[in-house]
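Tip: read the tokens left to right.
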């Protein structure tokens, strides 16, 4: 099952039609423009650091408590 009820074959056909209509150069330029827009938005929001999988700040020491502990 694909995205939103579309099968994988239908999605590939749609992708092929889009590439044929717009061409790879225009799609590559569109992707670069979207990336620049996202970078500009992050910079304007003051979050120009790249996203990593590590959280910042100090770790929180959390212990599970059972009903008998309280």
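Filled-in amino acids:
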């Amino acid at each position: 099952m694909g995205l939103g009820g579309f099968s994988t074959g239908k999605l590939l056909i749609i992708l092929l039609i889009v590439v044929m209509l717009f061409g790879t150069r225009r799609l590559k330029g569109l992707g670069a423009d979207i990336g620049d827009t996202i970078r500009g938005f992050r910079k304007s929001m003051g979050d120009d650091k790249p996203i990593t999988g590590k959280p910042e700040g100090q770790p929180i020491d959390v212990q599970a408590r059972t009903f008998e502990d309280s």
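The mean pLDDT is 76. Helices lie at 8-44.
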